Amino acid sequence: MADFIPEEKISEIRNAADIVEIISEAVVLKKTGRNLVGLCPFHAEKTPSFSVNPEKQIFYCFGCATGGNVFSFLMKQQGMTFPEAVKAVAQRCGIELPSREMSPLERRRLSEREVLLGLNRKTMAFYSGVLKDPAAGRTARAYLEKRGFAPAIVDRFELGYAPEGWDALIRHFRADRERLQLMEKAGLVIPRKTGSGYYDRFRDRIIFPIRNAAHQVIAFGGRVLDDGLPKYLNSPETSIYTKRRSLYGIDQAREHCRKNETVLVVEGYFDLLALHQHGIQNAVATLGTALTPEHVRILRGCIGENGTVVLVYDSDAAGIQAAQRSIGVFDQGYADARICVLPPGHDPDSFLFEFGAAAFEQAAAKAQGIIPFLMAAAVARHGLSVDGKVQIVSELTDAIAALQDPMARSLYVKSLAERIQVDESAILERVRSRVGAKPAGGAHPRPRAPAGAGGSRPPLSAQQFDRFETRVVMMMLQYPQILPEIRQRRLLDLFENEALRSVGKMTLRWEGDPDGLNRAIDSTADADIQKLVASLVLEDTPWDHRGCLKLLDQFENSRKNKDHTILEKIKAAEKRGDHEQWLKLLQQKQAQIEKS
To answer: pTM of this prediction?
Structure first.
């Protein structure tokens, strides 16, 4: 288990990994100087502030102050523990982990996340096996064939079938009480309301395994074979599955989205399968929930800052409401979103099988911006009578007010006024009255930069520290040739900031070790110190030995001058009889002595 990997093996895994390759799966990176930059996956931003240094194998976001190494990234992005991140990277790199017999205590410490993922993986294999079984899966296979889905697409997405009966999965696992409790945590079984015991959540349904971007099975969806209700049933949220951060098919679509700089978002499992079967692979599906800010950040990570999200909605009232809800989410996520409307009575599944991929792509190419789409839909629905115009303005006020950019709001107000022949100032007044109020679309506030560990202090930032001390530590991290000079002159003893002094000492401790920086990050419990190190490493500053020595001289002289100034202030306070100030200055001087 990753919990018991020795330090030497962790270093081997870290050195074998390519942080750029791993982060590139979630973020579109572009070369800028010695670093690569992209849109941060941890907060919404319009221009890239997320930076990766391939030489140091470090990342840092200058917008939300999140940083670290390859393990830190996976822990933050996928909610892994440190051992899980180490194991995940080892598997990617083909490095075999040491194994030994675990004690009962160690078995209890086994990560629940890892156990649940393993349980889901075995469950998927069971359902897939039932679907392929000549007898047990015959009806389900006939249903898929009738809908036009080829065996290749069924295999690619590893669809399955949950057989009839209340306990087929339970019997398959021969589940004891402990296993049943884990199956409940995974959302696979439900406790009986009366009496004891459990029953299978999914019964007589086509099963769709839901994966995360790392190809791990985190949940399941199921569809009935007839008109029974509920038609679709999804896993509940668990410790490994959160709807607001999950998109069906993201594991299959990511590279295609990046290549096309476009992602199609549909609402159903079969819609997505139909798209992939017809060769349109830059598509994902939502999972019974409205699009969230987390979804938008994931999508922008796939398509880049200039990419486009195309929402494929029905033209009915539900589709219009979905478009209205998404305005604020996309606007605050700085994403270009458009609406593709299919003919009445069609969803992507039916449209593709009737008209083909070329017709669908033509429809997608005509996708409108969300506000123009809502304008056209409102005019078509209400007409241009006096009452109709009142309804149109009322319907679009919240949508336009949800836009963050005042210029965009002004232009859309002007466009609407011209289209329905209403005085622009009247519409503008109504929009202004709604700006600042929560939009009907349920837009979320922009996320703030995360607080420090436990929220007990704000995150450490290089900008808040003494300029000289910050530059000296930055130099130590980026130009290790200067470390012997700093050690010999004991310059860290002159530091006043404890965080920077800590980073400096840590850097000296690992002097001469090419992997020292990452060892230090992994061994530091303080997340804020990890972020501070990453931020200083990723500041793109050129260094040469002569310039470094000059900076060190300036720093040393400034500290000596400051020390001399304190002594003069002590003498002056004593001379004028200011005992309180004299005592305060003495304590300050004593603190300096203790630090040195």
So the answer is: 0.74
